[in-house]
Amino acid sequence: MTAQPTDIATYNFAYLDEQTKRMIRRAILKGIAIPGYQVPFASREMPMPYGWGTGGVQVTASIIGPDDVLKVIDQGADDTTNAVSIRAFFKKVANVAVTTDTAAATIIQTRHRIPEHPLTAGQVLVYQVPIPEPLRFLEPRETETRKMHALEEYGLMHVKLYEDIAKHGRIATTYAYPVKVEGRYVMDPSPTPKFDNPKMHRSPALQLFGAGREKRIYAVPPFTDVVSLDFEDHPFEVQTFDQPCALCAAENVYLDEVILDDHGGHMFVCSDTDYCEKRRADGHRGHLAPETDLAPGNMEPAR
Amino acid sequence: MTDEPLLRVSALSKFYGSRVGCDNVSFDLWPGEVLAVVGESGSGKTTLLNCLSTRLLPSSGTASYRMRDGQFRELYRMSEAERRFLMRTDWGFVHQNPADGLRMTVSAGANVGERLMAVGDRHYGKIRATAVDWLSRVEIEEDRIDDEPRAFSGGMRQRLQIARNLVTGPRLVFMDEPTGGLDVSVQARLLDLLRGLVTDLGLAAIVVTHDLAVARLLSQRMMVMKDGRVVESGLTDRVLDDPRAPYTQLLVSSILQV
Amino acid sequence: MPTPLVVSDVAKSFTMHLRDGIKLPVVAGVSFSIKAGECTVLGGPSGAGKSSILKMLYGNYAVDEGQIIVTHEDGLIDLARASPRTVLSVRRQTIGYVSQFLRTVPRVSALDVVAEPLVERGEEREAARAKARALLAQLNLPEKLWMLPPATFSGGEQQRVNIARGFITEHPILLLDEPTASLDATNRDVVIELIAAKKAAGVALLGIFHDHEVREAVADRVIDVTAFAPGKLAA
After folding, report:
1. For chain A, what is the radius of gyration of the CA atoms?
2. Pick from C119, C120, C116, C23: which is nearest to C64 by CA?
3. What residues of A act catalytically?
4. Scanning every residue of chain C, which has its alpha carbon at the shortest distance from the alpha carbon of B33?
5. pTM above 0.95, yes or no
6. Do A151 and B80 touch (CB under 8 A)?
7. The ABC transporter domain covers which part of the protein (chain B) (predicted)?
């Protein structure tokens, strides 16, 4: 392929053909109409391997327009391989504007995080989902799990939480923590940390979930109830961190551990790189922050 | 004792193509009554059990069940959601192979607690206390509560399966060869346990077995099946001590004497 | 007081399907009744059908012909045609039975074997056990055996458990199939006392006693079963 990024006509807009996009949009609409319900769709081969976000990419490709501004994050970071390559992909096949600024994006494709900056009405958050079925590890038969969803038989989900408490004394599930959507369907929020679960509840943004290998799309429309499952005597709690971000001193955000050397040195920093950079640009300084800092936006992928 | 049966079965038949599964079976089952269905492999007793427990739909015939509100409901006209709800609350099903009735990869406590959670119990402490109580009733030590059934012996697994089924206080339990594949001493313990639970809880049960000794010990009434048809039925001790049908006589005379 | 049990024209035969369907007639034209407060004894040689008659009266053997009318729960029931459920109810409330041999259940103690019929009739378990203890003591069963399952007991010990189980309830009719067969003289006397007490309480007893001494002591009336031999009827 010799096409240049500006040579958009060589591709159909956003890579997928129009019939495929139509099919996926119908799946998305159905998903929005039945919040939390997994809609099967004819997942296409994409120019990247399964497990690299093919579900999210197909959803994004089906909803993106020339005026959209796209942000892609991987574990909260804009600058990791997966995020960089997907962003480059859409620049190339849709020629859209890209950004790392959460507030400036109209579509945010994410792997395993919800940005710290609150989302607003009109934004769309597209999740890359590896395994959409929350009951999968407890009931391997797909015929059975679909029936359980249909009949609202969700006792099994609590069995998993029961096992956690029995083994660890508390609910030890920290990511892909099951939620009930609009009081009906139990849904896997994809492997986001449970820290992000409360952000899904009544979010003004539209949340779409795409699982390419598993061929499922599901959705949480804006302002939908999303409740994390728990027990009366073991209520749902999010992770807490006993220190602020080492770079921007932010509290009540999700932190990643970063290894500094091979002598056990480490620090905890914001997993959301855009959020962290903005705070530092605003003058916040953590105890390990360097004197001079990268200006935000310097990390645009090289052409 | 109520004057109405718990289950009314009328002219129930199941055909697999031209082959007969069970043919024209009718009976009533009253609360607290244990009915044994005996016959050799292929006699249709398991087909009958699966039809009655709605795991299989019959080709013709009806079965109606008296719900807790006293109303009879036609089993095969219920929605699947209602049937499955019945299955995990008011009914139990004890499989011959405990692995078919247990979740082998979750702990004993969770196996017992699952039905409670399925009907909306959301208090971990209470669920666990109930699980401990039930494990002790089926003679499983409390300190095994967090072990997976994979680590249990065959007899323990079967007892766990029974606890898992009885925790919601069902009124009707289906059992498919509950003592099959167990050592004789383990069988005796299980039978005694079942007998005690059935009496204490006033359970009605339909027990499929090819073992006439099991039938004698557990049941008050018995149906003998051959080639999908009921060839003889009546009080268990009457059928065993004064068998009338040729096939029943053959069965009874084939028992090994110890 | 109404007659608790009336047997009329009852016939019984066995058809041996495994032996080319040959028919073995056992009894025919069996007709008698028993009275409350009396002990009626079935007499006749072995094989005359005494046990078969008792078993038909208990619903344990099917009846070919005739009627067995029992006063049960303020009504009359034909046991020969009764549904299994009715027979079970009659056994629970009206007719008790002491069989020749005890059918043991694994792991159930002698005490609970004896108490069980009372528990089935709705009595509290502890109250039932208290009565069972008293009876077992009366029958001189060593106390150290009470909590053991009777499977390993001697014939005489099992028989005493069986008798206690049969006598513990207040059934208005009690059937006794050679209850004293393997008992020593002392315990035979206890059984005679127990039967006398039942009679005094208005129970109608029907029994088979090979032991001449016991029969003399308890029988108010003897029915000769040879009169019901199948051949006689035709004659």
Report:
1. 20
2. C23
3. 36, 245, 248, 270, 276
4. C85
5. no
6. yes
7. 7-252
